[in-house]
Amino acid sequence: MLELTMVAVSGAQAGATAGMTLAEVPSEPGTALRVGRDAAVCRLVTPEDWLFVSRVHLEFRCGPDGTWRLTWLRGSRPDPASEVRLTYGPHAQAVGYGATVPLPRGGSGEIVVQERSGPRSVDVGFFHEV
């Protein structure tokens, strides 16, 4: 099971949990969960006017062995208006535009989509239950 919590944060709201969105999906091969502005495609949806987030920005996908991978999907722009960072335990890493990284099996952490030109961010916490 992969559990996600998402909150859209704007400057003064840092640390706030109001408006938190929750989602959970079973760890079955091929299962996918998306984050972005397009409510028709994404399970976790950011504000429509937050253009630093693509219509479909992040995808969590379960592999054949039950492990989860995070992909920062390439959008229509050649250069993104945001940065994506993955942290878990003492580890932190930038996620490249279009890159896929594994999530720790049985672990928890956070993915932050940070607006490059402003204080807004989308914070997605994850917990992978095995």
Question: How is this structure best described in words?
Answer:
With 130 residues, the protein is mainly beta. The protein contains no helices and 11 strands. It has strands at 2-10, 21-25, 32-36, 44-45, 58-62, 68-72, 82-88, 91-95, 100-102, 108-115, 120-128. The protein is globular and about 40 Å long. It starts with a strand and ends with a strand.
Q: Numbering strands along the chain, what is their spatial order in the largest sheet?
A: 2-1-11-10-7-8
Number of helices: 0
Strand content: over 45%
Query: What structural category characterises the helix and strand content?
Result: mainly beta
**Through-space gap between termini:** 7 Å
How many strands appear in the DSSP assignment? 11
What fraction, in percent, of the residue positions are helical?
Answer: under 10%
Radius of gyration: 14 Å
* Largest sheet report: 6 strands, antiparallel
- Spans of at least 5 consecutive residues whose pLDDT stays below 50 are none
Task: Indicate the mean pLDDT.
Answer: 91
Which word captures the global form? globular
- Strand-and-helix sequence, N→C? EEEEEEEEEEE
Q: Can I get a quick summary?
A:
With 130 residues, this protein is an all-beta fold.
Layout of helices and strands:
Blueprint: E1 2-10, E2 21-25, E3 32-36, E4 44-45, E5 58-62, E6 68-72, E7 82-88, E8 91-95, E9 100-102, E10 108-115, E11 120-128
Parallel strand pairs: 3-4
Antiparallel strand pairs: 1-2, 1-11, 3-5, 5-6, 6-9, 7-8, 7-10, 10-11
Give keywords:
five-stranded mixed beta sheet; six-stranded antiparallel beta sheet; mainly beta; 130 residues
